[in-house]
Structure formats: structure tokens, C-alpha cells
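## retry 2 of 3
previous attempt timed out at serialization; input unchanged, resubmitting
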Amino acid sequence: MIDTRIDTISNIAFYHYIDSDNLSRSYKEHLSDFSTWEHKEHACEYLLYPENIGEKICIDEVSLSDGELYTIVTNKSAKGKKGALISILKGTKVEEIEAVLLKIPIEKRLQVREITLDMAKNMESAAKRCFPNAQRVTDRFHVVKLVSDALQHVRIKYRWEAIKIENDAIKEARESQTKYISEVFANGDTRKQLLARSRYLLFKTPSNWSQSQRVRAQILFKEYPILE
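## retry succeeded, writing output
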């Protein structure tokens, strides 16, 4: 029905050159049923669809625009399609999350058997209170990201150390009026290049490495066993 309305007013706009602002306003105020939308009064703060709840749900925070954080609760079984959205609310504070989710009837909240969330304490607290029967599962994406961030932190630390060592060696060479020759590994990388160019291979599993990445990894792990 809505698609038909859109096509109709689009055709009118094309043939009669209606101003786009007037077209948008006409659709919003007269054709879209926005004025009678049941969520209109609180849509800027939250949306809630209890009928979409299921046994397995997810809760996470996202940044939708201008850095503003929102909390989104979805039904995992819907796989992002129709009926997936249970709630979206502005903010990530425990009180804000609980105030909205506790509006869901208790019998529906007790149906939830599993809730996937990140490692933030506010999410865990809200999940525990609002869905008491649900087993809380840490999203593997957040676990992998945490490990990857730690790994990259170590790589960057080694790279800064290599830069300092090279700068000191260049300075000494200048003072002694000798030519500085960089250390070069079998694949042609200097130590700085080895650490810089290893960034992406550390995000991949070995089975997805190219031949040059395999060679670089062998050198990297020999020089820095802790990265392996």
C-alpha cells in the first residue's frame, strides 16, 4: 500500500514538477500515517516491538550518526530480516536500557533462553535483570577483537623500538662519518618494514596467507616469538 502511494506521488511530481520539499511534507503529513503512528511520542528516545522477541536474542551498542550511541536488541532467529528488531533506544546507560526493556511483559522476557552481548558491564547488568532465565554469552566478535587489538599493540611497540634503534644507529653513523646500512632480511624487508607490513597477516589465519606473507610470517615469528 505504501509503495503504491510512493509511486503515485512520484508520478505526480514528475509530470507537474512539484517541489521536493512539498512532496516530502505531503507524504509525511498526509499519506504516511505518521500522525497516528503509535510510537510517535517516544520514537526519538526508543522503539519497542515485544512481539519480535524469541528464545535467542542479541544486545549491542552502535553509533548511528554524529557519534551518538544507541542500544539495539534483536532476535537472532530473524537473521536481520523482518521481525528482527525488538528494541532500539538512545543511550547505553543501565537505567535507560532497563527502563525500556522492562516494558516488555514478563512472560515474554522469561521466554528468552540465551542472550548474546559484548563484555560491557552495563549490558551484562541489564541482561541479567531484564532476562533472568537467559544464559549470557559473550559475542565471539568482541573476544577476537580484544585479542587482535592486544596483538597489534605488541607489534606497534616492537616497531617503535625498531625505529628508535635505527634512528640511533643513523645518528652514530653521521657522528662517525660512516655510511649507515640498514639490516635487510631474506625477503627484502628492513626491520621497520617487516613490522609494518605484518599488520594484515596477523589478522588472517595462516591458510589465507599469500606466499609472500608466509615468508614474512616465518621471519617475523623467528625475530619476535611472542607475536606467534
